[in-house]
Please model this.
Amino acid sequence: MDTTGDTHKSVNSPFYRNKKGQFTSKKRWLNNVKLRGSKRKRPRDVYMSTLKGRRIVELATLAEELWCTKCNIGLSLRDTVSETHNCFASTLEVNCRVCGTHYKINTCKSFNKESGKSTYPINGQIVVGMYDIGIGPHKLNDFLSCSDIPTVNPSLLKKYEDEIANIINQCTKENIEQAIDAEKLATIAANKIEEVI
Ligand SMILES: [Zn+2]
Model:
């Protein structure tokens, strides 16, 4: 039995059947095949809808990642089948068009944490930028939206912002303590010099 979409035709039989298995004319059978073919998502539709809009991408990282190690040839973004957003970075699922191997492509540098999860420096860097220019998650999302870049869950940005604020506060505290220590040493040194004089 030769199967084309939901319609069937016996190889050695002049009879045509619809998807319910009922006999039908050749003309109607062909029309059904064409109709179902036109409704199917073509590869171009897949990558065009998946990769719609703009992204923040590290070009050197992407160039390194888009490579089939089996065929030793470049992979094409046209063979992207899905995308997972990791805050500002993305992981694209791309198939090699020669051997069909499935690859997970990172658009930005990532590091594996002890928990096994990946972390992306770009996320921290953008949140530092957001903190530095004095805007909050909602304003940042407004900017992303105007730039046709996927927005990020504000609660996730707030979490990053809190982590970074803690680090900045810790660094500031250490700097102040170091300054106090340096002041103390300078005072002691000055007193000693006065005693000698
Ligand atoms: Zn390949």
The CA atoms of residues 91 and 106 lie 5 Å apart. DSSP finds six helices and eleven strands in the chain.
